[in-house]
Amino acid sequence: MVDLAARKSQARKDAFARRKLAFDAVNSTPVTRLTEVLAPYRKKTLAAYVPMRTEISPLAAMEAHSGQVCVPVIQSAGTALKFALWTADMAMVEGAFGARIPQNITYVTPDVLIVPLVAFDDAGNRLGYGGGFYDRTLQDLRRSRHVVAIGLAFEAQHADELPLEATDQPLDFIVTEAKTRTFSR
Question: What digits encode the pLDDT tens for the residues 89-108?
């Protein structure tokens, strides 16, 4: 029997390949749809990410958001993320794993998070990159407040089934170029 770690590793490999093909082929991104999902949260603090490699870019939605915007900052392995205030014109530097972070950091706590992912299923589950950063972060934030987690993906990243652990945190929305999925929690 193949263990869970091996199943997750294979699922990530397969999903990365699907995402790369979608990234190269898809002419539209779900930014308009994402902006619609974000509309009720326009004054809330939004966490998003500066895209890397084949991730869908949320930058247009970040720039259009009327509340504070922040980006994740990895502190160390095995810890939750912290979030630094971000504006489109600020100086950025390379952080952990090559992620771009503000040169001068002011930490804030987000109300809404746009979460990168490798794969997702029809139940609002996500497969991340394997570090557990977003799972720990969402778990910590959800203990003390209501937060909204939005997965941003290509439809090609959909999986019929994902290998899950008890610590995996579900999403409230998944936005793709084809549709928006909403999950009640």
Answer: 999 999 887 789 999 999 99
